[in-house]
Design goal:
30% of the residues lie in helices and 24% in strands. By secondary structure, it is an alpha/beta fold.
Amino acid sequence: MVRGVRTSLTLLFLVALLVAAAFWGWDAAMSPLPEAEDTPVCVDTAVAKGDKVYPDQVAVSVFNASARSGLATRTIESFTDAGFVEGDSGNAPRGTNVKQTQIWTSDRKSPAVRLVKSRLGKRTTVVEGEALGTGVVVLVGDEFKDLKKGQKSVKAVQDGFICSPPDSQ
C-alpha cells in the first residue's frame, strides 16, 4: 500500500505541474507582444575640447533645394559611402534659395559641422537655420556636383555636443 500511495502522490504532483504549466503557457500566448523600441538615429553626445570626431560619429540629413530630382538621395548615399550616419532626406522648404550648398546649424564651431563642411567644398555657407532633420542639416542646390575628399577627422575647438549614433558612445 505504501507503494500505491507514493505512486498516487507522484501522479498527483505531475498533474498539478502540468496544469500550472498549461496556465502559464496560455497566459504567455495570450498576452500582447512587447512594443518595438524605436532607436533614434543619433543622440546628443558630449565632446570635449581636443577630442577627435570621425564620420561614423556624425549623422547627416540632406535636403534638396534644387530643381534636380533625387539630388538629396544621391548626396546622402555619398555621405553614407564616406562613413557618415544616414539621417533624413527630402526636399527643402519652398522658397529656399541655395546655389551650391548650405549647412543649417545653431553651432558653427561644432566639429560635426566642420567635418561635413570639409566634404562639401569651399563654397558651402554655414548659416543659422532650423533643424529640418537629425544631425548636421545640409541643403544642396543646382550648382552642387559631388562630395570632396575632405578631412578624415576634426578636433573639437571647444566643449560641446554632436548628434552621434547611440552605439558610438
